[in-house]
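Hi there,

I know you've been waiting on this one. I reran it after we fixed the sequence typo, so this is the corrected version. Both the input and the resulting structure follow.
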Amino acid sequence: MSAVTLAIPSKGRLMESAAQLLESAGFGIERLGAERGYRGRLTGIDGVDVAFLSASEIAQKLRDGAIDLGVTGEDLLREKIAPGDPAAEVLLRLGFGPADVVVAVPEIWLDVATMTDLDEIAESFYERHGRRLRVATKYLNLTRRFFAEKGVTGYRIVESLGATEGAPAAGIAEIIVDITTTGSTLAANALRVLDDGVILKSCAVLAARTGVARVPAVAALTAALESALQMGRTG
């Protein structure tokens, strides 16, 4: 088989953490062409090319089959590829880049603590305002799947293009689905997470097109990374 392509984030903390993990597993990243070129190869192992892409692009290209494996956020992966979709599989949870995808409502909604409560107020909200509850989010697919699982139907999605947590205060939406790490940004915007409103506890993952895990270079890479992660946990 020709070389497989591993995509890693082209910038930011995910890129730095991915590079550190690869280094701890005995691999290096050699960029080809210009210093800021978007292609390279992995040293310390044969048959692994590197592509530098945005984390969201990595998830998209995995779905499209344009790359073989990649490091991206699980939230981005599951927005593009649902669990159980044969397009790709998670080989390793890498631990860095933690963030929860959550459903958050205004703090003043004292009677709304769960998704069931949210469903119950949706009807009365429509009767009072003549429209459905608006949910601001960048996670359209994750939101639809989660709300369907919880039986919540009386809403419509408003796609967020900016700072999602500010949507309720701006009158753009009543509730939001967004990522949070400490919850401080939500609190600063007078929002709180529903008791059962954690959609996904995300972190960076190594994901691959289904079937690629059996390729010898990918199996060796995965085993080395898993060993490095275990050493990091016990070191």
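Quick highlight: The longest helix spans residues 216-234.

Best,
R. S.
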